[in-house]
Amino acid sequence: AYLNDPNPELNISSKNLLSAMLADGPYIISNRKPEDYAKGHIPGAVNLPASVLFKPENLVKLPKDSKIVPYCYTGHAGSQVTALLNLCGYDATNLLWGIMGWTTNTTVANKQFSNPSMDLPTETTVNQLTGTHNFPTVDVTSSTNKLEIIRIACDNYATAGLKNIAAGNLSALITDGDPNNDPIIISVRKAEDYAKGHIPGAVNIAFTDVAKRENLQKLDPDGQIVVYCYTGRTGSQATAILNVLGYNATNLLWGMSGWTTDPVVAAKRFDPVTSPDYPFATGAGEVVQPTTDGGDGGCG
Questions:
Q1: I want to staple 237 with a disulfide (CB 3.0 to 4.6 A). Which of 55, 83, 123, 228 is the partner?
Q2: How far apart are CA 226 and CA 252, in angstroms?
């Protein structure tokens, strides 16, 4: 139901978040490490890393009647948290690009995307999954309450650590000559973009169709799955959902934009030149105003 929301808002830009903050304001969650939160965070944001967010004592603090905006360093973890929160019944939207899309201050936005130094091969062959598999068994609690089952499944995944893989490591897996460790690779991009070029061996399953029974039955519950999209955010959401359903799924960091610089195949990517430079708070929440000279301590 979440994947097929007729009015999905998977991501919100920094500009639109700032506008919302100047109005009623959403509930903003920083999923970053406490020490990085202290260096600088979006004003008003609370610090709840993914590893603790889905504990009942923390979830109960979140509003059920207003928008929640999680954010992380680059948008990957924030996207996974967003999917998990929506599964738990909240109205969450990820901050596109995380803190690096909010400020250019590299002390605060200390993880940045740079264009990949390598261009890995792509193909246009249409690949299909064959055969069917049983669904994985998800045995996380003796509770019969559906929302509690989902919460615990979300908590188990988030506590164990959100899964991401770099393009170079994925390339090494599929080119090492050992087919036994080749993952199932799922592109959740649009069919027309899949046709322009995709990771060798990848199959195309639309993001909205990832959790349909007929597609889940094609996935080996004992195998590894790598999901990718354009820039890593939609793939992150699909990855989180698959893990809650009992699959061993990993998101490809930066999606296709981390695999190749080909502008036809990877047309979407982070452009730091166009990023805004908004105020941030430090420590207990003191707002640091942006400076005009890029001096230390400001927003750059």
A1: 83
A2: 7
- Would you put residue 158 in left (φ > 0), alpha (ψ -120 to 50) or beta? alpha
Region of poorest pLDDT, from 35-44, 81-90, 202-211, 271-280: 271-280
Q: Do 264 and 124 touch, CB atoms closer than 8 A? A: no
The model's pTM? 0.92
Contact predicate 87/111, CB 8 Å: no
CA distances 300 to 37, 104, 270, 276, Å, are: 18, 6, 18, 10
DSSP state letter for 218: T
Is residue 51 within 8 A of residue 76, CB to CB? The reply is no
Instruction: Give me the sheet containing 203-204, strands edge to edge.
Output: 164-165, 248-252, 224-228, 184-187, 203-204
Region 65-87: mean pLDDT is: 97
| Phi, psi (deg, nearest 5) at residue 52 | -120, -10
